[in-house]
Specification:
The complex is a heterodimer of chains A (295) and B (419). Chain A is mostly helical. Chain A contains 12 helices and no strands. Classes of the chains: A mainly alpha (295), B alpha/beta (419). The interface between A and B is large, with 43 and 45 residues.
């Protein structure tokens, strides 16, 4: 905003107060659909979870839905956090590496960039089906390697959720790579080239130029990946285990359950998932404030 | 940048946000829970038919059965078109999706002009819909083709213990079946207890889908009958006492056999498709189905081993009927009635029962039909894999009331996989 004074001088009729008010009014108009969707969706979920919006029966304020889901909750939260954290961690490493290759330019950079763009456009459900076909006990990979189904490790529906994490990490690393590469492409050259001229090695440039510049975009995209992974259910349902259930799988099972009362329990799980997501956003906000660019 | 003092600006912003939020919440809270049973406004068939002309009926049905899909698209839909109704099949992953759509629409106050006109449904989904007043009722007596259906057939009078009450028209009958690879299973068991014994002595070669999957849940009920010494000993009406008295043996039996199941009972297939996949891949030697009709095609096209046979279970297996129901808020109820009536015609039921077409067992009372109509059923080609309905349904076990189903499923979920 350093050019504000100059622009004010160039404009013969500056009325910044009114102009800003007009902009704000426009912003509020634009915000209405967002507020209605977010507050409406979240609000109705909260109302359902505390018994104020029942499908049938009397309206009664209660925390029964939270209490009745409590026994399975701890293992579900643990499972969800494990899947989201592991997927995000792998996606960060893969995504940042990919972005580095893309930003470095050359033919390899263009090829990797194109592969990343194609990966982002694959729907998760298709990705999950592909991972299942590839990694299942009798999938393509064990067949290619000539390993018997009984000797193949339990990657699909196994104890460590490997196939689920692999799917999320693969898809989301491409997302992280595109976001990071996109924000860096225009800026990195002006720092990277002088550093190279001054004799900085590739490793030093990665540490001193690329990573600090990439940090904000990495933090933001990693937070998006974490929250998305925490809240989505299809991949974990398709490639995961019967027990313990991740929060999102539990929520969708309860939502679809035939007993009408379990919809409130489903809403309670959804509210908890939102709370965990908000906590993740708070952590990310702190990390952003600490990153060099924002100081 | 601060043209207005920050405190007043913040206050104004807070006020605006709060107003919007409150407005949205009040609007939502105003959505009333739906009222009780809706009944059809029609009193005679002719007005239904004239009202139906030009309507497009959205039939929501499980889309994972290709034969079922092609029967509806290639046989039923053209016949409906000839009667002036366009039939649009909406494929869904699970019947609950259709019910949930209707319930959500009703919850949001959309009591007419709903997006679902006809649902292929039975059992607990029908009961849940009935409890929520989600079905249109007392319309099936209007259908002329209901004369082909036995009025006293217990499978059609109540659906998993919930009185049908004219809220759904019969469509198919089904028989729970266990298929096995006769090349591998040299000593096929002949009872449900025998299946569990076979599983215990052949580690890793048997499993079942995790309830609440429909087929997995049916298998667990089948085991409940077995450990209770037959269906006669399990009261059809649910009570907490019967549940507490009968289910400990069930869960003991299932948890005893679990270490011998596929993956050591560490996890279960999430649905019947995953079970079929394991069977098709040769990882297990038996698969379960509540629609044995599909087996013929699966063996013919090489998905399932050629030696696939259906176990003959001495004590009989669960039998049920499935229906077509019209949601209370259906936009095209008249068209839906025309389709439901058409689906009950002898011609359509014969086409549907053909194992090369779909192979679904007829809901009609074949014995009461004219000799020429009976002959049409007798002339159907016989499947080499699946025995006839008469053989399969010998000693058929009645289904438990729908209240049993979620209770048994929930008991399984809290006891077996956490073992």
């Amino acid at each position: 905003m350093g050019s504000r004074g100059k622009r004010g001088m160039a404009n013969p009729n500056p009325d910044p107060v009114n102009r800003l008010r007009g902009a704000r009014l426009l912003l509020i108009v634009g915000m209405i659909p967002v507020v209605v969707v977010v507050v409406g969706g979240l609000g109705s979920t909260i109302l359902q979870s505390i018994g104020l919006m029942p499908l049938v029966g009397p309206v009664r304020l209660s925390v029964d839905a939270y209490v009745s889901t409590a026994p399975a909750l701890l293992s579900s939260i643990g499972t969800s956090l494990w899947i989201a954290a592991a997927s995000t961690a792998v996606a960060i490493v893969l995504g940042a590496t990919t972005a580095f290759v893309v930003v470095s330019g050359g033919r390899l950079g263009r090829i990797v960039g194109a592969i990343g763009a194609v990966t982002v456009s694959v729907p998760h459900l298709i990705g999950a089906a592909t991972m299942g076909l590839l990694l299942a006990d009798s999938g393509v990979l064990p067949r290619l390697l000539g390993i018997d189904a009984t000797a193949w490790p339990a990657l699909v529906a196994g104890p460590w959720w490997v196939a689920v994490i692999a799917e999320y990490a693969w898809k989301e690393s491409a997302f992280i790579a595109l976001v990071v590469a996109g924000t860096l492409l225009t800026r990195v050259a002006q720092f990277d080239e002088p550093a190279a001229m001054l004799g900085a090695s590739r490793g030093a440039r990665l540490r001193m130029v690329f990573l600090p510049l990439a940090a904000p975009a990495l933090i933001v995209s990693a937070t998006i990946v974490f929250i998305y992974t925490l809240g989505s259910y299809e991949v974990a349902w398709l490639l995961g285990r019967t027990y313990p259930e991740p929060l999102a799988v539990m929520a969708i099972r309860l939502f679809n359950d035939v007993s009408l009362s379990s919809r409130t329990e489903s809403a309670a799980i959804a509210v908890l998932t939102v709370a965990i997501s908000l906590a993740a956003v708070a952590v990310a906000a702190v990390a952003m404030r600490r990153s060099a660019v924002w100081r | 940048m601060h043209f207005t003092p920050p405190s007043s600006r913040r206050k104004w912003r807070t006020f605006a946000t709060a107003t919007l939020a409150l407005g949205a919440l009040v609007a939502l809270a105003g959505c009333a829970a739906p009222s009780a049973e809706a009944t059809s406004a029609f009193t005679d068939w002719d007005s239904v038919v004239s009202d139906a002309q030009g309507q497009t009926v959205n039939l929501w049905m499980y889309g994972g059965d290709e034969q079922g899909n092609s029967y509806v698209d290639d046989v039923l839909a053209p016949a409906a078109a000839a009667e002036g109704v366009t039939l649009n099949r909406v494929p869904i992953v699970d019947t609950k999706d259709a019910l949930n759509r209707v319930l959500t629409e009703l919850q949001a106050g959309r009591t007419a002009d709903g997006s679902v006109d006809l649902v292929w449904v039975n059992g607990d989904n029908f009961r849940t819909g009935s409890e929520a007043g989600a079905w249109l009722c007392e319309w099936t007596p209007l259908l002329p083709n209901m004369r082909n259906v036995s009025a006293t057939d217990p499978l059609l009078g109540s659906d998993f213990g919930t009185p049908v009450n004219g809220c759904e028209a019969p469509w198919n009958k089904a028989q729970f079946s266990v298929a096995y690879n006769s090349d591998v299973v040299a000593d096929p068991p002949s009872t449900v207890a025998g299946i569990l014994e076979w599983a215990a002595s052949h580690p890793g070669r048997f499993t079942y889908p995790a309830p609440p999957d429909f087929t997995g849940s049916a298998f667990v009920r089948q085991v409940l009958y077995s450990v209770s010494g037959g269906y006669e000993n399990v009261p059809a009406a649910y009570s907490a006492e019967s549940f507490d008295q009968l289910t400990p043996d069930l869960y003991t039996a299932l948890s005893d056999v679990a270490p011998s199941l596929w993956r050591g009972g560490d996890t279960y297939p999430a649905d019947v498709d995953q079970l079929n996949q394991l069977y098709a891949d040769g990882q297990i030697d038996m698969t379960l189905t509540y629609g044995p009709a599909t087996l013929t095609r699966l063996v013919e096209d090489g998905t399932f081993p050629a030696a696939t046979k259906v176990l003959s279970i001495a004590e009989g297996t669960l039998g049920n009927a499935s229906f077509l129901a019209i949601p209370a808020n259906a936009a095209h109820a008249a068209g839906a009635m025309v389709v439901a009536n058409l689906a009950l015609s002898v011609e359509q039921q014969v086409a549907k029962a053909d194992p090369t077409r779909w192979g679904q067992f007829t809901a009609l009372d074949v014995a009461a039909l004219t000799p020429a109509e009976r002959q049409q059923f007798a002339d159907l080609p016989q499947s080499t894999v699946v025995p006839s309905f008469e053989v399969l349904s010998r000693n058929a076990n009645p289904e438990l009331s729908a209240e049993w189903v979620p209770a048994v499923n929930e008991g399984w979920r809290t006891r077996i996989p956490t073992r």
